[in-house]
From TrEMBL, chain A:
EC number: 2.5.1.141
UniProt name for this protein: Protoheme IX farnesyltransferase
Protein family according to the UniProt entry: Belongs to the UbiA prenyltransferase family. Protoheme IX farnesyltransferase subfamily.
Cellular compartment(s): Cell membrane
Pathway it works in: Porphyrin-containing compound metabolism; heme O biosynthesis; heme O from protoheme: step 1/1
Transmembrane segments: 29-46, 52-74, 95-118, 124-142, 223-239, 246-265, 285-305
Main enzyme class: transferase
Other comments on record: Carbon 2 of the heme B porphyrin ring is defined according to the Fischer nomenclature.
Reaction(s) this enzyme catalyzes, per UniProt: heme b + (2E,6E)-farnesyl diphosphate + H2O = Fe(II)-heme o + diphosphate
Protein purpose: Converts heme B (protoheme IX) to heme O by substitution of the vinyl group on carbon 2 of heme B porphyrin ring with a hydroxyethyl farnesyl side group.
Subunit composition and interactions: Interacts with CtaA.
UniProtKB/TrEMBL annotation, chain B:
Name recorded for this polypeptide: Cytochrome C oxidase assembly protein
Entry keywords, A to Z: Membrane, Transmembrane, Transmembrane helix
UniProt lineage: Bacteria, Pseudomonadati, Pseudomonadota, Alphaproteobacteria, Rhodobacterales
Regions that span the bilayer: 18-37
């Protein structure tokens, strides 16, 4: 190999920086995973040592990042065609697909193995299933196959609090199932509020998002239906061992606001929405992010009050 | 065109290597900290060699 050919190889091979690898892990998704997993672990009735808690949440976050890298590796072809994703590390030419695959697979194995050591086998099994669900069931299969992709794929994002709970308790209970259900039911209206006006990209690359396949009206109907179904799930958590009056107040407030927003979206049509540049849809999308944060922070606050011994004995626990 | 000693690619690799070093050290510290906590938390870690273990003796009825 001549010096000239070596230098031309170097020039053609991307030389990724640390930031490019970090971007592969979808840091914004990771922040939500860290919050929900930490709350799931913190509110569980079995106390966990802070160092074990830190180590296990780190494993869950790394596992989520690994599945993000695998998703980017698989979707690199369509990411390059969409405005929102064309600057991701692979389509931007900063990282090769092979590198992303290697990073995703190695971090998956590492995170699951370390969670088994730091936490327990059950939580590690749940993390492994979550990575498999997001990378294989959602990314490789459902995303390009059905307009219900977001509904079923949303389960992957709903597992972290359940894993956090499993780290502490070693199992599953009604509280962790309801935390799972809260994120599961929240994902479709949250995502569709955005997808309803950003569907040209999905249409062009052939991803069958609900607004693309079923149209604007059906998507608006679905947003309202899922928001209505979400409210009882969110309120039910108030009447479990991890709920309480503060969580209840937060849930009533934020569900009323989310329902109002979904109702406003339902009353509009495509023409009205386009005329004011999708103002309502964008507002509801942003509010829905606050919705999830508020619920989990309220659960954490209830947990902190319980630890401090401040709890209302008369508060009903129905589940 | 040959790459000089201070080419931007070398700088990037250097930065990346330092981050990998930092992550490896942090990982070792984490393993150490978790081990200390698990040992200190009373996980079953009785020595089996050359150690008298009261828990291994047969249970005897208390006599009055």
């Amino acid at each position: 190999m001549t010096d000239t050919s070596w230098t031309s190889d170097v020039a053609q091979t991307p030389e990724p920086g640390v930031r490019d690898y970090y971007e592969l892990l979808k840091p914004r998704v990771m922040s939500l995973v860290i919050l929900t997993a930490a709350v799931g672990l913190f509110v569980a009735p079995v106390p966990v040592h802070p160092i074990i808690a830190f180590a296990t949440i780190l494993c869950i976050a790394v596992g989520a990042g690994a599945s993000g890298a695998l998703n980017m590796w698989w979707d690199a072809d369509i990411d390059a065609e969409m405005g929102r994703t064309k600057n991701r590390p692979i389509p931007a030419g900063k990282v090769t697909g092979q590198d992303a695959l290697a990073l995703g697979l190695s971090l998956s194995v590492l995170s699951v193995a370390m969670l088994a050591v730091f936490g327990n086998l059950f939580s590690a099994g749940l993390l492994a299933f979550t990575i498999f669900f997001y990378a294989v069931i959602y990314s490789m299969w459902l995303k390009r196959a059905t307009p219900q992709n977001i509904v079923i794929g949303g389960a992957a994002g709903a597992f972290p609090p359940m894993i956090g709970w499993a780290v502490a308790t070693g199992g599953v209970s009604i509280e962790s199932v309801l935390m799972f259900a809260l994120i599961f039911m929240w994902t479709p209206p949250h995502f569709w509020a955005l997808a309803i006006f950003r569907n040209e990209d999905y249409e062009r690359v052939g991803v069958p998002m609900l607004p693309v396949v079923k149209g604007d009206r059906v998507t608006r109907n679905n947003i309202l239906v899922y928001t209505v179904l979400l409210a009882p799930v969110a309120l039910a958590l108030a009447f479990t061992q991890i709920g309480g009056p503060i969580y209840f107040a937060v849930a009533v407030l934020f569900n009323a606001r989310f329902l109002w927003g979904a109702w406003a979206i339902w009353r509009r049509d495509e023409a009205t929405s386009t005329a004011d540049k999708h103002k309502t849809e964008l507002r509801v999308f942003l509010q829905s992010i606050g919705y999830l944060f508020a619920h989990f922070l309220a659960l954490a606050l209830e947990g902190a009050l319980r630890m401090a011994g401040w709890q209302m004995d008369a508060w009903p626990i129905w589940f | 065109m040959a790459l000089g000693q201070n080419h931007e690619i070398h700088e990037r690799r250097k930065g990346r290597n330092y981050v990998v070093l930092g992550l490896l050290i942090a990982f070792a510290v984490l393993i150490f900290a978790v081990t200390m906590v698990k040992m200190g938390n009373g996980h079953m870690m009785e020595g089996f060699d050359h150690t008298f273990r009261a828990s291994a003796l047969p249970v005897t009825e208390a006599t009055e």
